[in-house]
Amino acid sequence: MLGYAVTPRVITLTTDFGIVDAYVAVMKGVIITLESNTHIVDLSHEVRPQDVAGAAFLIQSAYRYFPKDAIHVAVVDPGVGTPRKAIAIQSPVGCFVGPDNGLFSPVLAEQQLVNPEDGRLRGKAVVVELTEQSYWLQPVSHTFHGRDIFAPAAAHLARGVEIGQLGRTLQKIHPLNLQPPVSRGGIVYGTIIHLDRFGNAISNIPESMLPPSPALDIAGRTLHGISESYQEGQVVAIVGSVGLIEIAARNASAADILGLREGDRLTVREDT
Amino acid sequence: MLGYAVTPRVITLTTDFGIVDAYVAVMKGVIITLESNTHIVDLSHEVRPQDVAGAAFLIQSAYRYFPKDAIHVAVVDPGVGTPRKAIAIQSPVGCFVGPDNGLFSPVLAEQQLVNPEDGRLRGKAVVVELTEQSYWLQPVSHTFHGRDIFAPAAAHLARGVEIGQLGRTLQKIHPLNLQPPVSRGGIVYGTIIHLDRFGNAISNIPESMLPPSPALDIAGRTLHGISESYQEGQVVAIVGSVGLIEIAARNASAADILGLREGDRLTVREDT
Amino acid sequence: MLGYAVTPRVITLTTDFGIVDAYVAVMKGVIITLESNTHIVDLSHEVRPQDVAGAAFLIQSAYRYFPKDAIHVAVVDPGVGTPRKAIAIQSPVGCFVGPDNGLFSPVLAEQQLVNPEDGRLRGKAVVVELTEQSYWLQPVSHTFHGRDIFAPAAAHLARGVEIGQLGRTLQKIHPLNLQPPVSRGGIVYGTIIHLDRFGNAISNIPESMLPPSPALDIAGRTLHGISESYQEGQVVAIVGSVGLIEIAARNASAADILGLREGDRLTVREDT
Question: Which chains contact C through at least 3 pairs of Cβ atoms less than 8 Å apart?
Fold first, then answer.
């Protein structure tokens, strides 16, 4: 089987399947069997079971570092076996394949491609419901659409199948009802949305919402100003690697020191 | 080093090495050094240490989703350093490389290629003992045949070396003494063989052994009928993604709810 | 985008980022975006946070099994955001990219390429500080040089950029102050440097330092002689897979049996 080399299409996988079972490998086998010329990258398989918002955050923090024709497959799917839709999205920042439960809404909202309130498409994104059964792996199980519907859809897109062939076009996607940070009376009210492995607590407040001389209130403590980098053993606020305000400590877990959890409030105000 | 593109050969890896140490990476380095045109897929490295039956289940649940010329390497090897054989198998459903301790017996039995009782070959499989030392990485350690014997064997097969060159032909493999489900007096006696990450309890009873209106007894509870899909917060029996009966609960761990463990009995009878 | 196939360059990644967050995937996205023809191998991402010596041990135990032109990227970087240098190394045994904090010192010392005491280069290695900003991902964050400096440097090397273009040449690297095993009065004083997943305790004493009939003292116990392989349920000393003395037990954790921890002393003397 000789041929010319074509740049392999990148496919990323984000799931809550963990790494103990063979579910992820099975998805890769399905993809490779249909299209061998791919570069499959694990984004994370350690999303907490059923944590759609957590997976959406990971995808949002990573997609911009991949080629613009990468195919991002996400299977965090509490609705598998119910009438929730299976979708594929083509956009100027990548393709996205998975259940229509909000996994890709933050990315499309950030790119101004959907209305974050109601999920209506606004621009250059094409969304299809994966209804065309000839592109599924048969028979389709009730419990593993990652293998039977999403992996094949990604592989067919990588092979060059037009997205419109995979099913019927949709005008909206399911919005993800994340509470965005709110600015009211000069105070920004935000939330801790992710604790990473180092104990950095990442908020949903972007750098652009900071006042000139910010003071940050979190867990009964006030932090003054934004640090340029981590500081030894000391809790500081920094602009993290995806442009969001993080609470961090060099060589220590800010989450442990302050007892932080996802969902905790972070408020930012002008330091007085 | 220019050349024409050939479809890369898929090599899957199943081990109990975990992901903290570098053992898996070392095997990949050995493979790539010998044959760079491969697509290596991690099946799982979180098999419980020395759990041959657990690894055999993972391979059995995954191999059919890979190309028919994929090479499945498994190193769960409590006998490393003892006289247990090292083998490679070529079959119509893939190649298999690892210690001869039963890891591949369920796949070959399912494909009618061996007698499950005594491991004698029946059909189109070729099995060799990896005795040809020129295909080993020298010097061979007493403790890491994954690196020194199995990874090189897989790479040489991927390069196109004939399996017969790797060693002497065998007529039987080591059978895996799994207790299969038994049907007696209209009752099917089975076992829970795997708890997955979601707390789904997978039994060894295939859909084909179910009576027309099944009632399932497990952990002192009776489940009536087979559900089409998971149901919210409720323990149900379903046909899982590999065709085996599973005990499951939507967005909850059936294993936790019922206190299930691997090895627990599941019996199925006609509902009366 | 058609072209001829060139053997993909191998890039290994060693980090303390874990596998829950998307940090590793982001590094892969950056690499692939710059150079798609690579074979990226995870060495380990489960290095303990900030454990430079642990990462150095993993790299040292693995690099020799990869092609001699592989690029080994390591990001265990307690000094990120401080003036510690970012470096790339070209040597006859591979390229190495990461912070200049000792991660690569054991490999270079073992290959006689640096003086282990002061880190001065001795031979055929070229080291550059990654100062050439046109090869960075802009803007550079204060907290994620893996993404912004090290992944791009590796990708540019894989593309064929000369190492000298990436920055200014250095004459020394940061040494890693590991205490090597010491031989005094016929007794070898060593240390347990790694406990692996199986509970094998790996020391820093190489086989070459053993006396003819060794007795090993560890955790108040004496082991007589070096075993050829693990022995059932019994603690033995063996020569491990990288040539270092290991304390091990077949199908059991020697570390648990003896209560071993990293840093524990192991002494070896002639058995009397």
Answer: A, B
